[in-house]
Amino acid sequence: MKGDTSTMHQRKFGRLQLCTALTVAGLSLAGALAGTGTATAAGTSGDEQFRPAYHYTPQQNWMNDPNGMVFYKGVYHLYYQHNPSGNQWGNMSWGHATSTDLVHWKEQPLAIATDDQQDIFSGSVVVDKNNSSGLGTAENPPLVAIFTSAYKDASPYKGLQAQSLAYSLDEGKTWTKYSGNPVLNRNSANFRDPKVFWYDSPGGGGYWVMAAVEATEHKVVLYRSGNLKDWTQLSEFGPANATGGLWECPDLFPLAVDGDPANVKWVMVVNINPGGVAGGSAGQYFVGNFDGTTFTSETTKASDALPAGTPLAGFNDGTYSDWTVNNEPGNPKDGPFAGAPASGTLPGQNGVTGFAGAGLVNSFNDGDWPVGSMNSPQFTVASDYLNFLVGGGQHPRVSDKLDNTAPPGDLLFSGFELADGSTLADAGWTGTGDLAPAFQPSASGGDFYIGAKRINTFDTGGAPGDDRQGTLTSPSFTVNRDFMSMLVGGGHRTAGSGQTLEVQLVVNGNVVRSLAGDDAGALNWKGWDVSEFAGQQAQLRVVDQATGGWGHLTLDHVMLTDQAAVPRSDETTVNLVVDGKVVRTATGANSEVLDWASWNVSEFKGQQASIRVVDNNRFGWGHILADEFVASPRPATPRVQTYDWLDYGRDYYASVSFSNMPQNKRIMLGWMNNWDYANNIPTSPWRSAMSLPREVALTQTAGGPRLTQKAVQQVDGLAGKESYAEKRARNIPAGTHMLPSAASGDVQRIDVTFAPGSAAKAGITVLGNGSKSTVIGYDKATSEVYVDRSNSGMTDFHPLFASVDSAPVAVDASGNVTLRIYVDRSSVEVFAQNGLRTITDQVFPEQGANQVALFAEGGTARLKSLTVRPLSQSMFQAAQVPAKNRK
Predict the structure, then answer these.
(1) pTM, to two decimals
(2) 400 classed as catalytic
(3) What's residue 463's pLDDT?
(4) Which of 456, 502, 630, 855 is deepest in the core (most CB within 10 A)?
């Protein structure tokens, strides 16, 4: 993906309607503003907290999709989407790194730079060994880059995405853009990510084939060319399987099943965002055949039927029947739910699919702006499961509070509602720099403030903007209640960013509490327990020493209260209510494709319950879709779990394969991040890493040929001697059992085989410190390997980061689960059962967390073998590359 999909939908701000035109690049305003100001390193590159030791990261600044990966004259080239000027998405150009062994990478100068006409989006590089393009010579054939030009306002192709060429005559060091660009233009705003390869015709000869996507149409479009400059369409593939987000970064290649050259299948890779199996970004694949013109999938899944059971609501008769609908009062279109079910897609909405029958609940009536709720009549819970289809926005329920009313208490500073013409200077505030009190309060910026005025550090000093800096300090007040509550919005900065952006409580000259926004325009309730300062004098201080995207704070309605602040729940949810309490809740996945959700409600059998659908969100993806509530004896399987995925974690995206590999090996590499939170991960001065390079193969399974993956052998060449090993089988009793310090580490490979035994769950924890760790285990009831990072360290930088990600894995013939785990400071890559399933997740452990433990829950598991090997650092090291790795 090339940015944040939150702007894919119609928005409303106040009563001014804004139909976004940014679908072309998937940008948010924050992302567009974020690409300014070069990030600078603090300390030595490679030593920063969370800096990977053997995964590729640029020395500084933003990175996303791998591009143009090619092997040429003994050198592996990795190009990638890069912002040379900042640590968030923007100014898209091709960065460049080279390696002779796939693990020791050297960053090279910027390869292909953005200019005033275009951003340089994703693509591929081929070795034009016969000089078919005419861009080199027979003696010096060119490397040719085929990339997406995302055209800017200054271009005659404004708003379009088309495919262009650049060529290199010095082995990939420097690049010249072809004068005849673009070479393939469909007059589309979402035609991108060309992967080009040479196809050998069975009858002799051959031609170049390009696989690119029409992202919003969920199609891979195939073209052919004899010279890389003139292209003729061959065919289209899709929509198929996962279509819950934009299709991106395709790849198409042949593989021999179990190495048999007489049994060759073709693999079509299609990355998708959002709509991945674990949420957000992911890569799916299809296995089938390619005849030089058309790819035919053998693994496309048919649509499913409704689960067996008793229908509770289907919305197919044109009415809401006896449901109670609460639309926002005064909304001119009776939004968000209208007076009757929707028949499908509503005006201004991307295509809605996955529902059943003639109608569904769709709260996009009048766009994302209006809020409201729906309630079913009471019913008796009589089955073990309640299954239903859900889609729309991913805004979970966080509290019972759906309004923005202030809690009871004492309002400080008059809520900043000063008389016109008065400023905070008149009210006794002091300040520095752009936050001089004469510039405050502001009457603009933010949402969900109370009254007309608030503090807004964006709208202060000289020209408004995120680069305004200073401090603003209140007069003293007495702490006379146990809590402080306030409305806060705007941005935040992590400790490693080198910037400060927060509201502080100052007592006796010391900062004793602080908080900040969530990189959002909406203000929400936050606060502190201040009971220990009862009776003391305190001051409130706003500190904005931040620049770049979301480099501002908004603050309003500061109060002393008797109860802790309860955040407003900006949710888009489906809820089960029993005895007046929400006991189950589900939300969409930022997708217009509905999929099955299932609640185990057996504990409520015989009780009265109701279903409540809530749309309490006014902004991006601020709507909910729901359909076909069925009381069932068994849970429904989400369709997304039945598809084939490259990886079941949250952080393996835009994965494509290297071109021109020796021995025709198929090596893939992915971006180790997720667009749900990519711009927010707490790393500086760089942001994002690449996954380990993986060799992929096809192996025959009961369901047909499927991919297996393993880290390339050069990665394992980094392994040292065993630091800890257990070769004899032993029991793992219930509980968590710390291993000796010899097993500890944050840069290591762990090989473990265990049998679940009588335990419900069993496995290993890594990057632990006694209170927090990353859990890697096996759930016997669901037959899944999982990575639980919900208590892995720093998780609160984004509400969608904490997760438990799982992959279906059957025990082997001996009843064992075998895992190979690569740990690298801020990530885990888990290869299960010889790479038939993988889970890749970022984690951000607390400083010094390196403990390893075994665990079992609900019974006894049995450890069969365990080996821990430290891995050498390969990045930001000047050490000589071992000869054994130069392959």
Answers:
(1) 0.90
(2) no
(3) 84
(4) 456
